[in-house]
Design brief:
CATH superfamily: Triphosphoribosyl-dephospho-CoA protein
Oligomer: single chain
Distance between the termini: 20 Å
Number of helices: 17
CATH topology: Triphosphoribosyl-dephospho-CoA protein
Strand content: under 5%
Structural class: mainly alpha
CATH class: Mainly Alpha
Number of domains: 1
Shape: globular
Length: 333
């Protein structure tokens, strides 16, 4: 390696946290801006949340994203051990910055839970390989998630208390057990239970995987994001010019595959399945090139009839994670 190559490589590592922080913010902005049915976007909002709150969230995420990327670089360089990443601290910091200042809206908690480990892992991958790679991402995600601690779990619950949701929840899932109740945010003894049970963040997400899609991603090494959402978005988009249409198509496609987790929590599993079936009809029209515009409008109208009750928020979070991967892949080919 020549001296210039060494300097160039050093500069790349020096700027990686800033690049990944910017990419993370751009990913949130692109997801929020795209006219996805039933979600906040440039044209539509809800009574308590609108497009401005998502703009604020993306901007205020800067510090958490930069710190995550910095720790990812240090991890790849051997300056930090995977048990020293403190993912829970980064999640709490990001939520505090994003939701307690000028914003004061819980807009992107699911996105934060997905982005923090993805940005750490992405930084480690590009530091080690000088390019994006899903295989490398899987390796580092496993290192990060499986080496979490009880402190990480306690920090996550501090985050939950920080942004306590007033949305109703329908506990219809047959998967909900007494163990889930032991760690429920509404349990007054939950923090003591976590400490007493030595519950790591990875253990918590494994327990919650059957009742929460974001937990399922953590428990299964981001399988849905990396094996379905990102590959689909990557296949139908080339660059920034056609990314918005690709985001909308990926959103409807993902919504057609399974009932949205947030809709199931707020409105029940039956309503979530009805939304899935409607998205499937829309996607079938898209696939057969009959023009999905009317069905897209109908889907959007149906999802907005009851305010934000049928907002496919988990689908949006998962698509956002796919956008992050797509942009990192474009910037670090």
């Amino acid at each position: 390696m020549s001296k210039s190559d060494e300097v160039s490589g050093g500069n790349l590592m020096k700027h990686t946290p800033w690049k990944l922080s910017s990419i993370g913010q751009l990913s949130i902005l692109l997801e929020a801006s795209s006219p996805k049915p039933g979600n906040v976007n440039r044209q539509f909002g809800f009574s308590d949340t609108d497009y401005r709150h998502f703009l604020a969230s993306a901007s205020l995420m800067a510090r958490g994203l930069h710190m995550s990327a910095t720790r990812g670089v240090a991890l790849a360089e051997g300056k930090l051990d995977s048990s020293q990443i403190n993912v829970g601290e980064l999640i709490h910091l990001s939520a505090h910055d994003t939701f307690t200042g000028i914003n004061k809206r819980n807009t992107i908690l699911g996105t934060i839970l997905l982005y923090i480990p993805l940005v750490i892992a992405s930084a480690a991958v590009v530091t080690q390989q000088n390019r994006f790679s899903t295989e490398g991402l899987v390796h580092w995600l496993q290192e990060i998630t499986k080496n979490t601690s009880v402190d990480d779990t306690l920090n996550l619950y501090k985050t939950f208390h920080l942004i306590r949701s007033t949305n109703p929840r329908v506990d219809e899932s047959a998967s909900w057990t007494e163990t889930h109740s032991r760690y429920d945010i509404d349990n007054p003894n939950v923090m003591d239970n976590i400490f007493e049970d030595n519950l790591t963040l990875y253990d918590l997400f494994k327990l919650s995987a059957d009742v929460d899609e974001i937990s399922g991603e953590w428990a299964n090494n981001f399988r849905l994001t990396l094996s379905q959402v990102f590959p689909y978005l990557d296949k139908i988009t080339d660059n920034l010019e056609n990314l918005e249409e690709g985001i909308v198509q990926t959103f409807v496609w993902l919504l057609s595959l399974r009932p949205d987790g947030l809709i199931a929590k707020k409105a029940g599993e039956k309503r979530a399945e009805e939304v899935r079936a409607l998205a499937e009809r829309t996607m079938n029209a898209w696939n057969h090139k009959r023009g999905p515009v009317e069905l897209m409008i109908h889907l959007d109208e149906e999802l907005r009839k009851e305010g934000n009750l049928l907002n496919p928020g988990t689908t949006a979070d998962l698509v956002s994670a796919g956008i992050l991967c797509k942009l990192v892949a474009l910037d670090f080919p």
